[in-house]
Specification:
globular; mainly alpha; about 70 residues
């Protein structure tokens, strides 16, 4: 697993927990499956660019913060 992917995984999970959201709630807000959110948090996959932008909006952070930049 790439270092940035690991950082992304930890960041997404932390933001989700900080906002007191379940994986299902995040999935519904982004119109993806709960399994997709789980895979992001486990570092098994990454969202596409459009979904990444929506994640940033959902958590009210810059995209760069999600990517560890």
């Amino acid at each position: 697993m790439h270092a940035n992917q690991t950082l992304f995984s930890k960041t997404i999970r932390s933001l989700r927990l900080l906002n007191r959201l379940t994986q299902q709630q995040v999935a519904e807000a982004l119109h993806v499956t709960r399994q997709a959110v789980s895979k992001w948090e486990q570092g098994k996959s990454l969202p596409d660019v459009d979904t990444l932008l929506h994640l940033a909006e959902l958590f009210q952070v810059p995209v760069e913060a999600l990517l560890g930049e």
